């Protein structure tokens, strides 16, 4: 993907802000090239995407706008378009704060943040039930597609592929029919923002899609939660905010989607950094043992 080079003149034009002071390129993401644009009175995040293009940015913007209408705190979408020199772009507000990744370095993730995060996830899921539920058959199709792609390119050992298929199929059938909702799919420490005053905002809706609610907890469970008490605070607050009893199949549902994530990571790193694949395969094996 060609990386657009942004100067202050271009940033002023795209942000419609004559008082842009500086532009700073952010680390390259999977989908987008991002810039932090600082103005005199406000700051912006400017995303370019020349690979998936404007349709992907439109989908991202729609997911953010939809989440905001349900009360989720997300950056405001300001402009979506195509620049003749720089390509498709999405302009959104830059929210002040620090991510969970940054806060964790100084042990600043306090217990009160877990209910605040749970509230945002519940607001994202509430009021967005999709008519067609997830079913055992749809889960098996998803699992089979991943395993087919992995097996075709011999990315995981055949014995591991077979164990994953058996385990996943049993779980898929056990989970029955379950409603699907609008989900984020990448609630990871980098994408959870602690705002001044301890409020939480969700960032980066590039992976947002319709899925089972539990799928939004896989990365939190794996990378965020330092203790069982924090996990209880998070989940209790989530179900309370949703106005529902806790899902009795939650842990089994989480196991299925944890397996899916492990398989997906092998495919992800194949094209991004193949040296990561052995570690992904080892993590998959640990999950299945």
Written description of the protein model:
- With 289 residues, the chain is of the alpha+beta class.
- It has two domains: 8-93, Phosphorylase Kinase, domain 1; 98-288, Aminoglycoside 3'-phosphotransferase, Chain: A, domain 2, CATH 3.90.1200.10.
- The protein has ten helices and eleven strands.
- The protein has a five-stranded antiparallel β-sheet, sandwiched between helices. It has a three-stranded antiparallel β-sheet with strand order 6-9-10. Strands 7-8-11 form a three-stranded antiparallel β-sheet.
- A hairpin with a 3-residue loop joins β4 (77-83) and β5.
- α5 runs parallel beside α9 and α9 (250-272) packs antiparallel against α10.
- The protein is globular and about 60 Å long.
- The relative contact order is 0.13.
- The model has no long low-confidence stretch (mean pLDDT 93).
List the helices and strands and how they pair.
Layout (H helix, E strand, L loop, with lengths): L7 H8 L4 E6 L7 E7 L3 E6 L5 H16 L7 E7 L3 E7 L4 E2 H5 L8 H13 L4 E5 L1 H17 L5 H17 L3 E6 L8 E3 L5 E3 L6 E4 L5 H6 L4 H15 L7 H23 L4 H12 L1
Antiparallel strand pairs: 1-2, 2-3, 3-5, 4-5, 6-9, 7-8, 8-11, 9-10
Helix pairs in contact: 4-8, 5-6, 5-9, 6-9, 9-10
- How many independent structural domains? 2
Structural class: alpha+beta
Helix/strand order, N-terminal first: HEEEHEEEHHEHHEEEEHHHH
Give the strand tally. 11
The CATH top-level class label of the largest domain: Alpha Beta
Major sheet: arrangement of strands: 1-2-3-5-4
The CATH topology of the largest domain corresponds to: Aminoglycoside 3'-phosphotransferase, Chain: A, domain 2
- Per CATH, the architecture of the largest domain is Alpha-Beta Complex
């Amino acid at each position: 993907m060609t990386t657009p080079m942004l100067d202050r003149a271009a940033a002023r034009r795209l942000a419609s802000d004559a008082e842009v002071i500086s532009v700073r390129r952010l680390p390259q993401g999977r989908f987008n090239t991002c810039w932090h644009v600082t103005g005199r009175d406000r700051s912006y995040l400017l995303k370019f995407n020349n690979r998936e293009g404007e349709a992907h940015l439109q989908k991202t913007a729609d997911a953010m706008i939809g989440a905001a209408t349900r009360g989720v705190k997300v950056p405001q979408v300001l402009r979506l378009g195509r620049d003749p020199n720089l390509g498709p772009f999405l302009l959104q507000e830059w929210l002040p704060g620090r991510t969970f990744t940054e806060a964790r370095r100084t042990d600043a993730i306090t217990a009160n943040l877990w209910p605040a995060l749970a509230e945002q996830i519940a607001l994202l899921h509430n009021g967005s039930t999709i008519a067609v539920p997830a079913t055992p058959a749809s889960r098996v199709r998803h699992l089979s597609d991943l395993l087919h792609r992995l097996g075709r390119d011999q990315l995981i050992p055949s014995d591991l592929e077979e164990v994953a298929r058996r385990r996943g199929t049993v779980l898929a059938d056990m989970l029955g029919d379950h409603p699907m909702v609008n989900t984020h799919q990448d609630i990871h420490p980098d994408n959870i923002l602690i705002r001044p005053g301890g409020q939480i905002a969700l960032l980066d809706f590039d992976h947002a899609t319709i899925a089972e609610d539990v799928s939004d907890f896989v990365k939190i469970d794996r990378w965020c939660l330092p203790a069982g008490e924090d996990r209880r605070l998070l989940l209790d607050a989530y179900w309370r905010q949703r106005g529902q009893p806790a899902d009795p199949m939650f842990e089994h549902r989480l196991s299925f989607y944890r397996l899916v994530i492990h398989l997906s990571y092998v495919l992800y790193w194949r094209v991004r950094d193949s040296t990561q694949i052995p570690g992904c395969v080892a993590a998959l094996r640990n999950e299945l043992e």
